[in-house]
Design a protein that fits this description.
With about 260 residues, the protein is of the alpha+beta class. It is built from 6 helices and 9 strands, in the order αβββαβαβαβββααβ. GO terms for molecular function: DNA binding; metal ion binding; RNA endonuclease activity producing 5'-phosphomonoesters, hydrolytic mechanism; single-stranded RNA binding.
Length: about 260
């Protein structure tokens, strides 16, 4: 178990988030982002960490790269890692980013032709306490376009899972429908997306880096065969399978 976080560690992380947040680019930067069908986009990545239930140190860090638009797996990298930072709400990136970044760097070194042109992150981007979630952190440090897709609503900056939010979800009629996640300040931090006709429960999409929010939502929808976009779903499935294979007696879990 990790010892309770020191107050100076939190201050240090806040300062680092503030510094890195200045480098986030929340507009489209790539040619493939401009067209309605993402012409020129060939490879989409997904990252995730899966844990052995009851073990908050050892995890499987997973990277997958899929072809686009076929969404067939081109590459996968599963690595057991030992997390060294404690979990503190709002600072997940300091716990997970180093290992996800290492996976991207291994790919860049060994098979650069398979490096993804955009990475889907199981977590939030600008939709965050300090507008700098895991997808932003990984995006800035990797230099790659990143999209944050969370399965559960982070109740932050005046966005709550209340009756109004539930009525907005009910109004999403079909896959591709969305509504903005608007902070108390009036700033739109992300969107709730009905990603599939078959799933009425939305996912929460936010900008990580080098992409516009509307583009991120369109791209997320285009990568969904089910509720969760395929790059993240494949990363989740393969990391769980890795743990089941190597630790057959252990239950697995992923963050929500």
């Amino acid at each position: 178990m990790f010892s309770p976080p020191e107050e100076d560690l939190v201050h240090q992380w806040e300062s680092e988030q503030d510094r890195l947040r200045q480098q986030v680019v929340d507009v489209d930067t790539e040619d493939w982002q401009s067209g309605p069908h993402f012409s020129g986009l060939d490879r989409v990545g997904g990252v995730d960490l899966s844990f052995i239930k009851g073990d908050d140190v050892n995890a499987c860090a997973q990277l997958v790269v899929l072809s686009y638009p076929e969404l067939q797996v081109l590459y996968e990298d599963s690595q057991m890692v030992a997390l060294t930072a404690p979990y503190i709400a709002g600072f997940l990136a300091f716990r997970e980013t180093p290992f996800l970044l290492e996976a991207l760097q291994r790919l860049q070194k060994n098979q650069p032709e398979l490096l993804p042109q955009v990475v889907f992150v199981d977590g939030n981007g600008l939709f965050h306490y300090r507008e700098f979630g895991l997808a932003c952190h990984l995006g800035v440090l990797s230099g790659l376009p990143c999209v944050g897709v969370a399965k559960n609503l982070l109740q932050v900056q005046g966005v709550y899972k209340n009756e109004e939010h539930q009525s907005q979800i009910a109004a999403l009629q079909r896959g591709g429908d969305s509504f903005p996640l608007t902070a108390a300040s009036g700033k739109v931090l992300g969107k709730a997306l009905r990603s599939s006709d078959k799933s009425s429960k939305p996912v929460y999409v936010s900008v990580g880096h080098k992409i516009n929010l509307d583009t991120a939502v369109r791209l997320t929808h285009s990568c969904c065969r089910y509720r969760v976009p395929e790059p993240i779903r494949q990363a989740d499935c393969r990391s769980r399978e890795y743990l089941r294979t190597h630790f057959p007696a252990a239950d697995t879990e992923t963050k929500e």
